[in-house]
């Protein structure tokens, strides 16, 4: 179960952070560069473990969403957890995803686009504003701000509110884009980025061969550029994996060849790529029963 995995990961991350704390104390006493290097490596290990945690959560996205739906108090505990909270909070917005019919998705997306356009206009207006803020006038002009502006707020307060609302709308927009027909466009964008990243990686690998026999600094620079290219390619592929896992039903359609791609090249790419992307399926009724037994409810 995902909750068992969370418990394990919290223990791992705690041990790592405790070790970093101990090393930091030692470094303050000794100023030993080897200790500083150990701290650096350990911090990288923590980031790697947090990335693994996120990957695993995406692979169990259905259970993650059920946790929020059926056990909200426990979910809040996870968000406030010293070792898991940051990762859980970063993914919470994905819980808002729901499958929409094509017409519904298009209608919702247009609504979000309109609201974001109004917020851009409001921001442009507020940046030029001088003097007292009139909440009723602002809220009457830009509907997304209705009920958000209070008497006594200054310009900076309003600009911050605009930014927060826009961020929320941007996330909602992404959730809509996970539905058909928009999902295809997003996937095509990811494919292009992956192809470019792979081409760049190949080029940087070739540059390593060209640097052989040149100065040590040239060889080092070529190797570093290659490592950066590999990192970028892996990150881009990982983003597409996460996107596909966010909508398990559409991922199923890809695996069952029920999707219609724009050409054979894209079809072949997605067929191969989707083979490495898997989401754990659970029976909702059985899962709820097991969770209640676990929590002795």
Characterise the protein shown here.
- This protein has 297 residues and is an all-alpha fold.
- The chain folds into three domains: 2-97, no CATH class; 102-177, no CATH class; 182-274.
- It is 77% helix and 0% strand.
- It contains 13 helices and no strands.
- Helix 3 crosses helix 4.
- The longest helix has 31 residues, at 216-246.
- It starts with a helix and ends with a helix.
- 18% of the residues are buried.
- The model has no long low-confidence stretch (mean pLDDT 94).
Helix and strand arrangement:
Elements: H1 2-30, H2 33-59, H3 61-70, H4 72-80, H5 85-91, H6 102-127, H7 135-141, H8 155-177, H9 182-211, H10 216-246, H11 248-255, H12 264-274, H13 284-294
Uncertain runs: none
Name the helix and strand elements from N-terminus to C-terminus, one letter apiece. Answer: HHHHHHHHHHHHH
**What does the average pLDDT come to?**
94
Number of strands: 0
Into how many domains do the coordinates divide?
A: 3
Query: Which secondary-structure class do the elements indicate?
Result: mainly alpha
Oligomeric category: single chain
Tell me, briefly, the overall form: globular
Computed over alpha carbons, the radius of gyration is 24 Å
Can you give the helix content as a percent range? over 70%
Instruction: Outline the biggest β-sheet.
Output: none
**What is the tally of helical segments?**
13
Beta-strand portion reads: under 5%
Descriptive labels:
mainly alpha, 3 domains
């Amino acid at each position: 179960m995902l909750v068992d995995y969370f418990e394990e990961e919290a223990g791992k991350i705690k041990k790592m952070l405790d070790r970093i704390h101990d090393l930091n104390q030692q470094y303050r006493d000794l100023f030993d560069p080897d200790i500083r290097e150990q701290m650096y490596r350990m911090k990288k290990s923590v980031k790697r473990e947090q990335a693994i945690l996120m990957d695993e959560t995406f692979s169990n996205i259905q259970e993650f969403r059920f946790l929020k739906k059926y056990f909200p108090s426990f979910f809040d505990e996870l968000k406030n957890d010293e070792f898991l909270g940051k990762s859980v909070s970063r993914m919470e917005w994905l819980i808002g995803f729901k499958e929409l019919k094509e017409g519904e998705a298009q209608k919702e997306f247009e609504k979000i686009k309109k609201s974001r356009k109004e917020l851009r206009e409001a921001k442009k207006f507020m940046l030029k504003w001088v003097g007292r803020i009139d909440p009723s006038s602002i809220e009457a002009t830009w509907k997304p701000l209705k009920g958000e502006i209070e008497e006594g707020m200054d310009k900076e307060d309003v600009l911050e509110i605009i930014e927060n609302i826009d961020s929320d709308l941007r996330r909602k927009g992404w959730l809509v884009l996970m539905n058909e027909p928009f999902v295809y466009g997003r996937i095509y964008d990811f494919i292009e980025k992956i192809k470019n990243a792979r081409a760049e990686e190949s080029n940087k690998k070739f540059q390593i061969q060209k640097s052989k026999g040149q100065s040590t600094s040239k060889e080092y620079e070529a190797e570093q550029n290659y490592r950066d290219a590999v990192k970028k390619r892996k990150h881009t592929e990982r983003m597409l994996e996460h996107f596909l896992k966010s909508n398990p039903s559409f991922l199923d359609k890809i695996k069952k060849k029920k999707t219609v791609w724009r050409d054979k090249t894209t079809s072949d790419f997605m067929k191969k790529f989707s083979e490495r992307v898997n989401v754990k399926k659970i029976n909702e009724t059985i899962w709820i029963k097991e969770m209640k037994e676990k929590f002795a409810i």
